[in-house]
Amino acid sequence: MKNCILFTTKHGSTEKASTLLKEKLNAETDIINLKDVKKPDISDYDTVILGASIYIGKIQKQMRKFIGENLNELLKKNIALFIMAGQKEKAQETLYNAYPSKLFDHAFAKEYFGYEMILEKMNFLEKAATKAQGVTESRSEILYDVIEKMANQINKL
Questions:
Q1: How far apart are CA 15 and CA 18, in angstroms?
Q2: Is the confidence at residue 133, as pLDDT, over 80?
Q3: What is the tens place of the pLDDT at every residue in 73-125?
Q4: How far apart are CA 15 and CA 29, in angstroms?
Q5: How far apart are CA 108 and CA 39, in angstroms?
Q6: Rounded-to-integer distance, Cα 55 and Cα 71, Å
Q7: DSSP class of residue 60?
Q8: Quick one: which of 62, 70, 72, 132 could link to 34 by a disulfide (CB 3.0–4.6 Å)?
Q9: C-alpha span between 40 and 33 (Å, rounded)
Q10: pTM to 2 decimals?
Q11: Are 7 and 15 in contact (CB under 8 A)?
Q12: DSSP code of 46?
């Protein structure tokens, strides 16, 4: 069994979650940032885990493009999906809407991994929007127990 975690991140939180997940997996697992590798070859992987952060209600463009170009091959794999997003109260709805329904329905694991707001990594507009929501200091709300839960699901394959 060979795994691949493909992710997109803006400020590093999804990369952090991907690394945490990899550390819990028993099988050989590669991590690929879609900003660095534009057209990764997923043919050698049994399980593909897709992770993305949410900005303005959507996963990032690189992930949407990768899924669009590889949907047929993805549907032949074991698929797990996760998101990082700031609105906990809308997490399940956001997760459902983040990925194409065909892929979402095919995935055996789908999770919300929490969020981080690291003000030092944000640009001026992001900081202003965050402060308008009442956030005045950086915070990390990564759900380590949910990462562990997904790892256990993947390890059972």
A1: 5
A2: no
A3: 999 999 999 999 877 778 889 999 999 999 999 999 999 999 877 667 666 67
A4: 14
A5: 24
A6: 22
A7: -
A8: 62
A9: 9
A10: 0.89
A11: yes
A12: S
